[in-house]
Amino acid sequence: MAMTVVVTEAIPPRLRGRLAVWLLEIRAGVYVGYISKRVRETIWQYMEADLGEGNIVMAWATNTESGFDFQTLGKNRRIPVEMDGLRLVSFLPVEAKTEEPVL
To answer: Predicted confidence band at 97 (pLDDT cuts at 50, 70, 90)?
Structure first.
Protein backbone atom coordinates (compact mmCIF):
# COMPACT_ATOMS: atom_id res chain seq x y z
CA MET A 1 0.00 0.00 0.00
CA ALA A 2 1.18 3.49 -0.80
CA MET A 3 0.14 7.08 -0.29
CA THR A 4 -1.69 8.20 -3.43
CA VAL A 5 -2.72 11.69 -4.55
CA VAL A 6 -5.18 12.43 -7.37
CA VAL A 7 -5.67 15.96 -8.71
CA THR A 8 -8.60 16.53 -11.06
CA GLU A 9 -9.96 19.37 -13.20
CA ALA A 10 -13.37 19.56 -14.84
CA ILE A 11 -14.36 15.92 -14.30
CA PRO A 12 -18.00 14.77 -14.20
CA PRO A 13 -19.71 14.79 -10.77
CA ARG A 14 -20.30 11.02 -10.95
CA LEU A 15 -16.53 10.46 -11.20
CA ARG A 16 -15.91 12.78 -8.22
CA GLY A 17 -18.36 10.65 -6.24
CA ARG A 18 -16.62 7.46 -7.34
CA LEU A 19 -13.23 8.82 -6.25
CA ALA A 20 -14.66 9.77 -2.85
CA VAL A 21 -15.48 6.08 -2.23
CA TRP A 22 -11.75 5.24 -1.98
CA LEU A 23 -10.02 8.55 -1.30
CA LEU A 24 -10.55 11.60 0.91
CA GLU A 25 -11.24 14.87 -0.95
CA ILE A 26 -9.13 17.37 1.01
CA ARG A 27 -9.80 20.27 -1.39
CA ALA A 28 -11.98 20.61 -4.45
CA GLY A 29 -10.55 18.13 -6.94
CA VAL A 30 -7.68 16.93 -4.70
CA TYR A 31 -7.96 13.39 -3.32
CA VAL A 32 -5.55 11.51 -1.04
CA GLY A 33 -5.43 8.04 0.45
CA TYR A 34 -3.29 5.09 1.43
CA ILE A 35 -4.34 2.38 -1.07
CA SER A 36 -3.00 -0.78 -2.67
CA LYS A 37 -1.73 -1.05 -6.23
CA ARG A 38 -4.81 -3.05 -7.17
CA VAL A 39 -7.19 -0.34 -5.89
CA ARG A 40 -5.08 2.35 -7.62
CA GLU A 41 -5.35 0.49 -10.94
CA THR A 42 -9.12 0.03 -10.46
CA ILE A 43 -9.55 3.75 -9.78
CA TRP A 44 -7.51 4.53 -12.92
CA GLN A 45 -9.82 2.33 -15.01
CA TYR A 46 -12.86 4.22 -13.71
CA MET A 47 -11.18 7.54 -14.53
CA GLU A 48 -10.26 6.43 -18.06
CA ALA A 49 -13.84 5.29 -18.73
CA ASP A 50 -15.54 8.41 -17.35
CA LEU A 51 -13.12 11.34 -17.83
CA GLY A 52 -15.20 13.50 -20.13
CA GLU A 53 -13.44 16.78 -21.01
CA GLY A 54 -11.42 16.93 -17.80
CA ASN A 55 -7.87 16.01 -16.91
CA ILE A 56 -6.29 14.08 -14.07
CA VAL A 57 -2.88 13.41 -12.57
CA MET A 58 -2.30 10.56 -10.13
CA ALA A 59 0.90 10.30 -8.07
CA TRP A 60 1.92 7.61 -5.60
CA ALA A 61 4.88 6.70 -3.40
CA THR A 62 7.12 4.00 -4.85
CA ASN A 63 10.69 2.71 -4.74
CA THR A 64 12.29 4.91 -7.43
CA GLU A 65 15.04 7.54 -7.43
CA SER A 66 12.47 10.30 -6.88
CA GLY A 67 10.42 8.28 -4.38
CA PHE A 68 7.21 8.55 -6.38
CA ASP A 69 5.69 7.86 -9.78
CA PHE A 70 2.78 9.47 -11.61
CA GLN A 71 0.55 9.26 -14.66
CA THR A 72 -1.72 11.72 -16.40
CA LEU A 73 -4.99 11.51 -18.27
CA GLY A 74 -6.73 14.07 -20.48
CA LYS A 75 -5.59 17.19 -22.30
CA ASN A 76 -3.10 19.32 -20.38
CA ARG A 77 -0.04 21.48 -21.15
CA ARG A 78 2.04 19.39 -18.76
CA ILE A 79 3.18 16.06 -20.15
CA PRO A 80 5.33 13.39 -18.50
CA VAL A 81 8.74 12.69 -20.06
CA GLU A 82 11.48 10.28 -19.05
CA MET A 83 15.07 11.48 -18.87
CA ASP A 84 17.92 9.30 -17.63
CA GLY A 85 15.50 7.07 -15.73
CA LEU A 86 13.67 9.95 -14.03
CA ARG A 87 10.08 10.95 -14.80
CA LEU A 88 9.90 14.70 -15.30
CA VAL A 89 7.26 17.13 -16.54
CA SER A 90 7.54 19.09 -19.78
CA PHE A 91 5.33 21.95 -20.88
CA LEU A 92 3.74 22.10 -24.30
CA PRO A 93 3.84 25.53 -25.96
CA VAL A 94 0.82 27.76 -25.51
CA GLU A 95 -1.53 27.43 -28.45
CA ALA A 96 -1.73 30.66 -30.43
CA LYS A 97 -5.25 31.95 -30.72
CA THR A 98 -6.12 33.08 -34.20
CA GLU A 99 -8.82 35.60 -34.67
CA GLU A 100 -10.86 35.70 -37.83
CA PRO A 101 -10.97 39.08 -39.53
CA VAL A 102 -14.21 41.00 -39.16
CA LEU A 103 -15.86 41.49 -42.54
So the answer is: low
